[in-house]
Specification:
single chain; alpha+beta; three-stranded antiparallel β-sheet; three-stranded mixed β-sheet
Length: 193
C-alpha cells in the first residue's frame, strides 16, 4: 500500500515537473504578450510540496506499523499473563492436595508404614512434588527466619526465651514460591516480647 502511494506521488511529481516546465514557457510567452497571463506555480515548490506529502505518508505508515507491533506485543503479553493466572489457580488447588498428603504421610502410624497401599500413597506424593517442581513451584522454609509479610501470614504470637522478636517459631502451613515470587505465603507463629 505504501509502495503504491509512493509510486503515485512520484508519478505526480514527474507530471508536475513536466507541466511546470511547460507552464513556465507559456508564462514567459504570456508576459511578453502583455503580462495578462496568470503566473504558474513554481515547479520546485510543487515538487517540494509533493515530497513533503510523501514523507508525511511514509511517517504515518511507520507510526501505524509501530502501533500495530505494540498492539501485537501487548496482546501476546496479556494472553501469557492470563494463561499464567489460570495455571496459578490450578497450582493453588494442587498445593492443597500436597498439604493433605504431607499431613497423611507425617501422621502415618508406624504399624501401617510397611503396607503396600501406604507405599502407593507415598509414590503419589512424590509424583505430585515432582510435578510441582517441574513447574518451578518449590516450598520454602520459614522456621528461624525473620517474619516477612510478603512471605508469611502470622496467625499467632508467643513469647519464647532466647528468640528475637519477629522470628518465625513454627510453621502451620508450608509456603510455596513459583520461580522467584511467592505463590502462597507460609502460615506461621511469630516470637514477640
Amino acid at each position: 500500500m505504501l509502495a503504491s502511494r509512493v509510486s503515485t506521488l512520484h508519478a505526480r511529481v514527474l507530471t508536475y515537473a513536466r507541466k511546470g516546465y511547460e507552464s513556465m514557457t507559456s508564462t514567459h510567452e504570456g508576459r511578453e504578450e502583455g503580462r495578462e497571463a496568470q503566473v504558474a506555480p513554481n515547479p520546485s515548490d510543487e515538487l517540494e510540496a509533493l515530497r513533503l506529502e510523501r514523507d508525511e505518508q511514509i511517517a504515518a505508515h511507520q507510526r501505524t506499523a509501530a502501533d500495530f507491533a505494540n498492539f501485537r506485543r501487548r496482546t501476546t503479553e496479556e494472553r501469557e499473563r492470563e494463561a499464567g493466572l489460570a495455571a496459578e489457580g490450578l497450582l493453588m488447588k494442587l498445593l492443597a492436595v500436597a498439604d493433605d498428603l504431607d499431613r497423611a504421610m507425617a501422621n502415618l502410624p508406624a504399624e501401617l508404614a510397611d503396607q503396600p497401599w501406604t507405599e502407593g500413597i507415598g509414590a503419589i506424593h512424590r509424583k505430585l512434588l515432582a510435578l510441582l517442581e517441574s513447574e518451578e513451584v518449590r516450598p520454602y522454609d520459614s522456621v528461624g527466619a525473620a517474619f516477612d509479610p510478603r512471605e508469611h501470614e502470622a496467625v499467632a504470637q508467643r513469647t519464647e526465651s532466647g528468640k528475637p522478636t519477629g522470628e518465625v517459631l513454627e510453621e502451620h502451613r508450608k509456603g510455596w514460591r513459583i520461580r522467584d515470587r511467592v505463590l502462597r505465603p507460609a502460615v506461621v507463629s511469630v516470637a514477640t516480647d
